[in-house]
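Project outcomes to date are best conveyed with an example. Our students and postdoctoral researchers have been running inverse folding experiments weekly, and each run begins with a structure described purely in tokens. The record below, which covers 58 residues, was selected by the lab manager from last quarter's runs and is presented without edits.
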């Protein structure tokens, strides 16, 4: 398995696995090589889905 964000081989890291709940079902999002990649992926997702998010930079 590769890091969702940067594509590195997770066998070289202590990976962080993420699951989401969608329509009551647990869906595995994937693995990240560390929390830096996880947070970067979340920030990228917030940029993509920003219109539907209540988060504000102010
Ligand atoms: Zn990564």
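After processing, the design step wrote out the following sequence:
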């Amino acid at each position: 398995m590769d890091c969702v964000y940067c594509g590195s081989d997770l066998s070289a890291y202590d990976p962080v696995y993420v699951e989401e709940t969608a329509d009551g079902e647990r869906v595995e999002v994937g693995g990240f090589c560390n929390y830096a990649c996880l947070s970067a992926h979340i920030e990228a997702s917030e940029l993509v889905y920003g219109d539907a998010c209540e988060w504000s930079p102010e």
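The longest strand covers residues 25-32. Residues 3, 5-6, 8, 32-33, 37 surround zinc ion (CB under 6 Å). The training component of this project remains on track.
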